[in-house]
Amino acid sequence: MDFQIIRRVFKSPAVLSIIIFLSVMGPGIITANVDNDAGGITTYSLAGAQFGYNLLWTFIPMIIALAVIQEMGVRMGVVSGKGLADLIREKVGIKFTFLMMIALLLANFGNVLAEFSGIAVSSGIFNVPKFIALPVAAFFVWLLVVKGSYKSVEKVFLAASAIYLTYIVAGYLAHPDWGLAIKSVLVPQISLDPTYITMVIGLVGTTIAPWMMFYIQSSVVEKGISLKNLKYSKADAIIGAVIVNIVAFFIVLACAATIFTNGIQVNNVADVSNALAPLAGQYASILFAFGFLNASLFAASILPLSTAYYVCESLGFEAGVSKGFKEAPVFHGLYLGLIVLAVIIIMLPNVPLLSILYLSQVANGMLLPFVLILMLLIINDRNIMGEHVNSKLFNLIAIATVVIVMSLSIGLVLTALF
């Protein structure tokens, strides 16, 4: 977009800023909202159903950490004009990058499986057989990227992001104990129980996932945001981080106020949706189920896309939504392959859908520190970032996130062994 024309037409600085922000808006809000995917909603639901209000305190540090990490990704993309995988390859070499991409590919495929299992679960809530829902959903997400440009795809993703507001309504309809909720936010209740630690890792892994660092940077680069509009892109990233955690907060709140309070055992999101109906009303149940379907479809489009981006960038292949199959055959082939393989696996009988959804988030949490360390090495390199290197505060927050997640992961392993 030609911002010089906009500046001549709109003289008011405030109006001008809003228009430029709306033009730049997208990567941060979309990336953050996809964090609330099928696996994420399952994890938040189980957190509320199993631990009540006790884990609400985690959202304060997660908002801060996610805002900083998303801002770092945006800044790296705008300043360098390159994706994160591309920068990692240049920083540490092709061999290490290749091994890391294999690990991320496997973890992300688990996430893709989680999204399509989410579609299977949510279609079951609405009495649609998964043998119909999955192929239709797969065709839809494939067609969206193959036939659309970056701008058209981004508009669809932004519309999907708005639907997440249904969870805030569902949380309100659950009539939570606001006093207890506020107390749980301000006064952390920490436990060394392995199930508690696993849940915290899952919450961190779904809120700050490794794939999102690659996607947000790649989408900023493909959108072509210039350095002079960096501040608007930063605002997009920070607003996205706040919104996604508010939505997640209300998911935990809804399940804590209803399922946990009434001592109901749930095994999957369908159980959660069904349990909400008599406790919070039919509308809360329908909104919860519809929000889950939207989240699953949304993330089923984004996660294979993120994987295709970072694999192609790391190996030097052409990548981009606006590029056709002839221009980027590996990119489009990988995107299609991930979708088809995920659908085939999820359609097999007796697939443990809940385990796939939950464990994919735990895997995210365990991989997160390694990606963050590489990001810190790159963003503090003045040869790449120039004057836009990290401040001491941002480094402190990012390093604290690495230390906390690694400590949780080590603690989980030790408690499992001893």
Automatic annotation (TrEMBL):
Top-rank taxon of the source lineage equals: Archaea
**What membrane topology was assigned to this protein in its record?**
Multi-pass membrane protein
Q: Kindly list the GO CC terms recorded for this protein.
A: plasma membrane
Major subcellular location class: membrane
Kindly provide the name given to this protein in its UniProt entry.
Natural resistance-associated macrophage protein
Q: Which UniProt keywords apply?
A: Membrane, Transmembrane, Transmembrane helix, Transport
Alphabetical list of PANTHER family matching this protein: NATURAL RESISTANCE-ASSOCIATED MACROPHAGE PROTEIN 2 (PTHR11706:SF33), SOLUTE CARRIER PROTEIN FAMILY 11 MEMBER (PTHR11706)
